[in-house]
Every structure is written in structure tokens, then in C-alpha cells.
Design goal:
- The complex is a heterodimer of chains A (about 240) and B (about 325).
- Chain A is an alpha/beta fold.
- Chain A contains seven helices and seven strands, in the order βαβαβαββααβαβα.
- The radius of gyration of chain A is 19 Å and the shape is globular.
- The model of chain A has no long low-confidence stretch (mean pLDDT about 90).
- Chain B is of the alpha/beta class.
- Chain B has three domains: about 70 residues, no CATH class; about 130 residues, P-loop containing nucleotide triphosphate hydrolases (Rossmann fold); about 35 residues.
- In chain B, strands 5-6-7-3-8-9 form a six-stranded mixed β-sheet, with helices on both faces. Chain B has a three-stranded antiparallel β-sheet with strand order 2-1-4, with no helix packed on it.
- In chain B, β6, α12 and β7 form a beta-alpha-beta unit.
- In chain B, α9 crosses α10 and α10 runs antiparallel to α11.
- The N and C termini of chain B lie far apart (about 70 Å).
- The chains are: A alpha/beta (about 240), B alpha/beta (about 325).
- Chains A and B meet through α5, α6 and α7 of A and α5, α6, β5, α9 and α11 of B.
């Protein structure tokens, strides 16, 4: 089975892109399933099911969605095998821009949209910077020049990736993307695999449910802004 | 530039040789134009916070830097000029072979016609993805008579097709001049100041109502936006093919716009059902059921009729103008 991780900021068009890719694969009788990771609620599983796609959802609730992802990803692969899928796609929202569900040796896709502004690519962390494929959506709403500028900003922070423009509504480019997905390596399980980048660090009193504000309640991994001096990463 | 030089030259010298490099480092939160050490010195000197700002490991950044430089150097390669695009026949949705082999050359206008869902978008996608028998139509695309380099498919900086989409608005909040500059910089365009002026002048020549370089692009009218988009594609975009999805008759000289693109040695493809635009093309590809069903060369009789159609078009424009001026149309 081939396994692909798809991530991207909220509302960037991940589900629409994946559905278009799946349509292109279903026409070639390739069996594709999806595991959708989200925080609080999602109806996307219904949307997938409506298109005849085997789907499971996982809601992280109060946990960091990426920690939740990596703690469950092996079981997701087992589920994919049990469904006799040819391709399993995981979809997870990058909520803090510091997220990175990408795994070494597993095709990693980041979906980002033209409307998010040209400053956005450099604000997104490893989710974008370590991806193998960057999918840019909503290109039909902006001009050619804006598409080119946005794509060049993406190339600036991730020159190694294959960057593709996909229209999630019409499916333009989705067939091509489906061939890239299908070229992913066969992966039986994730034993011995590791993440491409460490996940957001945590473990402070607030992780454990603390709600009160004040120094005396802050314990564990706590970092303070240095408001006194200018912050700037200059070597 | 040799691999070794990239990692052993002090960054301040490197950035002087290749100004694009400072943009690369800036996007990772690093200012290096004054830095006298080399890349590895820099990576070794980063604090924990700075490493966190990178959003990738130092080793990943090293690889990214190599790929970035390789990408920029590929821009100057001389095989980037497209002198012809040949479309070898594939098959339609029922698997029947297409009967036409086509060659598109710079300076040509070709119209693409056919009902919605007939396969117009698929044909354009085949060109954009430089199909090699690996799309649903089985078509092959040859560039300059040969099998194309994979960069045409995979490199963002070598896109075959620039698309003038139907939307008429910009979303960036910049002035006209800033907008052209940002676009030119992102494409590493030489002689940028001169090009900025050229784009502005051409856009103003195409738009009915002129606009100043200090105008915000979001405040332009539909016609002005269109004019700027076309002038920008003509001067700054490197893609050899321009795809136009209809041009509305919205305060812009459509014929002049097409002439401009043709002069700039673009291959212009227009998906249109507008009789004037269709006849401006030297041929029309008729698409049906996923395949090219017919190629109609614009005949001498059609060209003669185009003159009549343009007269009718001008007449309608005059009537519009009279309505705008508050006149009546009791006498045509």
C-alpha cells in the first residue's frame, strides 16, 4: 500500500484537492482510502463517504493534533491494509503553522492557497518547508502575476519540492497530481520510520488543563518573550 | 557556480555575486549580506531560537540552498526558448484515435471551441503538463520537435502556460508600480526599471481610461485590471504559451491586446465562442467528446466577414456609448 501525508493550513482546500485526486484514481480502479485528522468537529468524513471513499476520522480534542496524528498513524496504516487499499491518504490541518506530520520516506504534501497572501509561505514551518509536493490552490481567483509571485515565494522556502497548481473545484491539475501520488513508494508499516522534523514542544501546566493566569501557575516548559530587548534573529 | 564554492565562499561575497541569495536567507529569518563567514559557519553559529525560526534542520537548509541555486542557474539555460509545440494525436473518450497532428509556433493565435465538458480543458492541461502518453487522452507533446526536458513539467520557473483567467480583480494590496516590481523581482527580471515603465505604458494603451502608477491595483476598474494583466504577461511572464479564457468586451481593445501578445512571440490559445475573437485566430480546433474532431483554417471569406463583424461590434459600442450619455435610440 502507498501512504501519503497531506497537510495544510485550515481552509486551504485540502479536502477538495484530495477528492479530485481520488476521482482521477477511481477512474483507473485504484482503491483509495482517507484518514481525516481534525480537532473538534469535521463533516469531511461524510463528504468522502458520499464519494464512495473508505474513510475514518480522528478528533484530537484537547490534544495537540500533530501529537495525536503521530500516535495513531501506525494503526491507520493497519486499517488501510485491512481495507485492502492501494493508496491511503492522511489529511491533517496545520493549525499552528509549526505543525509537521511529514515522515522520512513517505510522500509529503502541503496544500496552501493563493489567497493567504505572499507573506504566508515564510510564516509556515516544516509543514511547508519539508514537503515533497506543494499544491497551490485557488489560482482561478487571482491573476497570473499573483500566481507567479506566490509560487516564487514557495520556491524560496522550499526549492526542492515539486510545486503544482490545482483547482479544487474544476479538478484542473488533479489527474497530474494523482500520478505523483501513485508514484509514492510501497509502505507496509512505519517501524523504524521517523518524522522529518520535531513536533511543537509542550508539557507545561496549561497542557494539563490549567486555566488560571499568573506566574505561580506556570510550570514545566515555559518560555518568556524578551520584551526588554529587540527580538530579531540576526547572526 | 560549483558546489564547493557555494559552501566555502563568505556569504557577503556570495550575495554580491548572486543577489537572489539574500532573499533566500531572509525568508528563513537570516540577514547575511554583511556576514563574512561561509554557510557552514553561519549554520554552526545559530542559537536555538534561530534554528527554531528556520522551520527545518540545518542539514535540510543546506540541501534547500543547493536546490535553490540549481533552480536559478537553470533559468539561464538556452534550451528554455520554445520555437514549436507539436501535439501528437491521442484518443477521445471512446478510445477512437484523433486524426490531427498539430504544430503551434510563436506568434500564432489559435481558437479552441466546443461545448462545456467537451475536453477543451484537458487539451490545455495536456500542453501544460507536457503529456507523454500518460494522461487520459494518451497525447504526446513535443517541444522544438523533441521529447521535452522534465523541467517543463516540474520546475515552477519553467511553466509552459500562462493563464489569463476569467476573473478581473487583483487580491494583493499594492500600487500598480509596486505590483509590477514584486512580479519582476520574483522572476529575477533584468533591467527591471525599464520593464516597469513598459508594462505601465502598454497597460495604459490597452485600457480605455488611463491610470497612474500610484493607483492601488485593487482600485482599478475591470478593464484597467485586464489591461494590466495582459501587459504584465506580455512583458514579464516567460511562459511561451498564453491561454485566454474569453476576453470580455469590458473597456479594453481586444484586438490590440492579442496583437501585443503575438508581437511578444507568444503562442496564444483562446477558448472562446465569440465570433470576432474566434476569427482573429488563424485556425480553430473543434473539440468534441474529449478529442480534436476538426481543424478549421480561417478562410478568406471568413476574414472578409471579420471586417463586417468588427463594424457591427463598433456599432454596438457606439450604441452603448449613447446610452451612457443619456441619449435615446429611437434613431439607430
Amino acid at each position: 500500500m502507498k501512504f501519503i501525508t497531506v497537510s495544510g493550513p485550515p481552509s486551504s482546500g485540502k479536502t477538495a484537492v484530495i477528492l479530485q485526486v481520488i476521482k482521477a484514481m477511481q477512474q483507473r480502479s485504484i482503491g483509495v482510502g482517507v484518514v481525516k485528522f481534525d480537532c473538534l468537529a469535521t463533516d469531511d468524513d461524510v463528504l468522502y463517504a458520499r464519494h464512495g471513499v473508505p474513510v475514518r476520522k480522528g478528533l484530537a480534542g484537547p490534544l495537540c493534533p500533530d501529537h495525536f496524528f503521530v500516535s495513531n498513524v501506525e494503526e491507520c496504516l493497519e486499517w488501510g491494509h485491512s481495507q485492502k487499499l492501494d493508496v491511503l491518504i492522511s489529511e491533517s490541518a496545520g493549525l499552528c503553522n509549526r505543525c509537521s506530520p511529514h515522515i522520512e520516506g513517505i510522500t509529503a504534501v502541503c496544500v496552501i492557497d493563493n489567497l493567504s497572501g505572499i507573506g504566508t509561505p515564510k510564516k509556515i514551518g516544516p509543514m511547508l518547508k519539508t514537503a515533497d509536493v506543494v499544491v497551490i490552490t485557488k489560482g482561478d481567483i487571482v491573476s497570473q502575476a499573483e500566481r507567479e509571485v506566490f509560487a516564487s515565494r514557495v520556491v524560496q522556502v522550499n526549492p526542492s519540492a515539486l510545486t503544482m497548481h490545482i483547482n479544487g473545484i474544476t479538478g484542473q491539475g488533479a489527474y497530474e497530481l494523482s500520478t505523483v501520488f501513485y508514484a509514492a513508494p510501497e509502505t507496509d508499516n512505519l517501524q523504524g520510520f521517523s518524522l522529518r522534523y520535531s513536533m511543537p514542544a509542550a508539557l507545561c501546566s496549561y497542557c494539563l488543563g490549567e486555566k488560571r493566569i499568573g506566574k505561580q501557575y506556570q510550570m514545566g516548559n515555559v518560555r518568556k518573550i524578551q520584551l526588554g530587548k529587540e527580538e530579531g534573529p540576526k547572526p | 557556480m560549483k558546489q564547493a564554492e557555494l559552501f566555502t565562499t563568505p556569504l557577503n561575497q556570495l550575495c554580491a555575486q548572486m543577489p537572489e541569495l539574500s532573499d533566500f536567507f531572509t525568508s528563513f529569518g537570516l540577514e547575511v549580506t554583511q556576514y563574512a563567514g561561509d554557510v557552514d559557519n553561519l549554520l554552526a553559529s545559530l542559537s536555538a531560537t534561530q534554528i527554531e525560526h528556520l522551520g527545518m534542520t540545518q542539514a535540510q537548509l543546506r540541501t534547500a540552498l543547493q536546490d535553490y541555486v540549481t533552480g536559478i542557474e537553470a533559468l539561464d539555460a538556452d534550451d528554455s526558448r520554445v520555437r514549436s509545440i507539436r501535439i501528437l494525436p491521442g484518443r477521445d473518450k471512446n478510445g477512437h484515435a484523433e486524426a490531427f497532428e498539430l504544430e503551434l509556433v510563436p506568434g500564432q493565435i489559435v481558437s479552441i471551441v466546443g461545448p462545456t465538458g467537451s475536453g477543451k480543458s484537458r487539451l490545455l492541461a495536456d500542453i501544460e503538463w507536457v503529456a507523454q502518453g500518460d494522461t487520459p487522452t494518451g497525447r504526446h507533446i513535443l517541444l522544438n520537435g523533441a521529447q521535452p526536458d522534465p523541467k517543463w513539467r516540474f520546475s515552477t520557473r519553467h511553466k509552459l502556460v500562462a493563464q489569463l483567467s476569467q476573473n478581473m480583480n487583483f487580491v494583493m494590496d499594492l500600487t500598480v508600480e509596486e505590483f509590477i516590481r514584486v512580479h519582476g523581482e520574483s522572476r529575477f527580471v533584468p533591467d527591471l526599471e525599464q520593464k516597469i515603465e513598459q508594462v505601465q505604458d502598454l497597460a495604459n494603451a490597452l485600457a480605455g481610461e488611463p491610470f497612474a502608477p500610484t493607483t492601488h491595483i485593487t482600485a482599478l476598474s475591470g478593464g484597467q485590471s485586464r489591461a494590466l494583466m495582459i501587459a504584465d504577461i506580455a512583458i514579464l511572464s516567460s511562459s511561451p504559451v498564453v491561454l485566454i479564457d474569453e476576453i470580455e468586451n469590458a473597456g479594453i481593445e481586444r484586438k490590440k491586446a492579442l496583437e501585443l501578445l503575438v508581437q511578444k512571440e507568444k503562442i496564444v490559445l483562446i477558448a472562446t465562442h465569440d465570433p470576432i475573437l474566434a476569427l482573429l485566430g488563424e485556425k480553430r480546433l473543434v473539440i468534441s467528446n474529449g478529442g480534436i474532431k476538426q481543424v478549421i483554417n480561417t478562410s478568406a471569406a471568413e476574414r472578409a466577414n471579420l471586417i463586417e463583424l468588427e463594424r457591427m461590434d463598433r456599432f454596438m459600442m457606439e450604441l452603448r456609448q449613447r446610452i451612457r450619455n443619456g441619449e435615446t435610440l429611437e434613431q439607430l
